[in-house]
C-alpha cells in the first residue's frame, strides 16, 4: 500500500490517503463484493487538503459498498479535516471504458454535490482510445490522474504517450512514482487543463 501526494501545478498541496478497497471473490456473485479498510496515516498539517482513495477491483458495487464509502466520507468531514474529494483507483481496460463511464455517472449522482470526484487513468488510454472518448469524462469527474508507472516502476516509453495526453479537454494531473523517471515536456506547463502532479509514495 502506498500514499499519493499531489504537488505542483496550480493547486495547493493535497494528500491522498488510501481509505479502502473494494474486492470480491472469484465468484461473480455480487453479494461477495466487500470493502476492506486500509491503514492510513493522517497528514502532518491539520489544514492539508485530503483525498480519500478507493482502490476498486470490480465495478459491481452493491448499495452497501456505496453506503460505507459515504459514511466514511461523512466521518472524515466531521473530523475537521479538509476533504477535497474521493478518488477511484481502478484499472479500466480500454475495451471497458464505456462500462466505467456508466459506473462513474452513477457514482457522481450518489456523491454530495460539493464532493469532488477524481479517477486514475492508464497511460495507454491515450494511444488505444480516441481522445474524444476519454473526454466524455468531462462533467462526470473533476480530474483524471494519468499514471506514468506500472507497479513500482516508470513505464519505459512514457514520453511517447504524453503528446496525446496533452490533448485531453478535461482537468488532468500526471501521476509519477517516487524515485522514478520523469522529464516534463515544455508544452505541459502551458496546457490550460494541466493541474500538476501526484507522487505515489513507496513504502518499501
User: Low-confidence parts lasting 5 or more residues at pLDDT below 50?
Assistant: 6-17, 22-30
CATH fold naming: TIM Barrel
Radius of gyration in whole Å, from Cα? 16 Å
Count of spatially separate domains:
1
End-to-end separation: 10 Å
| Beta fraction | 25-35%
Give me the strand/helix succession: EEEEHEHEHHEEEHEE
Averaging pLDDT over every residue, what do you get? Answer: 79
Q: List the strand order in the largest sheet.
A: 1-2-4-5-6-7-10-11
CATH architecture: Alpha-Beta Barrel
The CATH superfamily is known as: Glycosidases
Tally of individual helices: 5
How many distinct beta strands? 11
Question: Helicity, in percent?
Answer: 10-25%
CATH class: Alpha Beta
In one word, what is the shape? globular
Largest sheet: 8 strands, mixed, barrel
**Class of secondary structure makeup:** alpha/beta
Protein name: DUF3142 domain-containing protein
InterPro entries: DUF3142, GH
Organism: Burkholderia orbicola (strain AU 1054)
Pfam families: DUF3142 (PF11340)
Task: Give a written overview of the molecule.
With 204 residues, the chain is an alpha/beta fold. The protein has a single domain (12-16, 47-190), classed as Glycosidases (TIM Barrel), CATH 3.20.20. It is built from five helices and eleven strands, in the order ββββαβαβααβββαββ. It has helices spanning 63-78, 97-110, 125-128, 131-134, 158-165; strands at 3-7, 14-23, 34-37, 49-56, 82-89, 116-122, 143-147, 149-150, 153-154, 172-177, 194-201. The strands form two sheets. An eight-stranded mixed β-barrel has the order 1-2-4-5-6-7-10-11. A two-stranded antiparallel ribbon has the order 8-9. β4 (49-56), α1 (63-78) and β5 form a beta-alpha-beta unit. It is globular and about 40 Å long. The N and C termini lie close together (10 Å). The model is unreliable at 6-17 and 22-30 (pLDDT under 50). Pfam families: DUF3142 (PF11340). This is DUF3142 domain-containing protein. It comes from Burkholderia orbicola (strain AU 1054).
Amino acid at each position: 500500500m502506498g500514499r499519493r501526494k499531489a504537488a505542483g501545478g496550480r493547486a495547493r498541496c493535497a494528500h491522498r490517503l488510501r481509505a479502502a478497497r473494494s474486492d470480491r471473490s472469484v465468484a461473480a456473485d455480487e453479494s461477495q463484493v466487500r470493502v476492506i479498510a486500509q491503514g492510513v496515516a493522517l497528514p502532518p498539517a491539520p489544514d492539508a487538503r485530503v483525498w480519500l482513495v478507493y482502490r476498486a477491483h470490480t465495478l459491481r458495487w452493491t448499495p452497501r459498498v456505496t453506503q460505507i464509502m459515504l459514511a466514511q466520507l461523512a466521518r472524515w468531514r466531521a473530523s475537521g479535516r479538509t476533504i477535497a474529494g474521493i478518488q477511484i483507483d481502478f484499472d479500466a481496460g480500454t475495451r471497458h471504458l464505456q462500462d466505467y463511464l456508466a459506473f462513474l455517472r452513477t457514482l457522481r449522482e450518489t456523491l454530495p454535490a460539493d464532493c469532488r470526484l477524481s479517477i486514475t487513468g492508464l497511460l495507454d488510454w491515450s494511444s488505444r482510445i480516441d481522445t474524444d472518448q476519454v473526454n466524455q469524462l468531462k462533467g462526470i469527474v473533476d480530474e483524471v490522474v494519468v499514471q506514468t508507472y506500472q507497479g513500482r516502476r516508470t513505464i519505459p516509453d512514457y514520453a511517447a504517450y504524453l503528446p496525446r495526453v496533452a490533448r485531453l479537454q478535461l482537468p488532468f494531473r500526471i501521476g509519477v512514482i517516487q524515485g522514478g523517471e520523469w522529464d516534463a515536456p515544455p508544452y505541459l506547463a502551458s496546457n490550460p487543463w494541466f493541474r500538476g502532479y501526484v507522487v505515489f509514495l513507496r513504502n518499501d
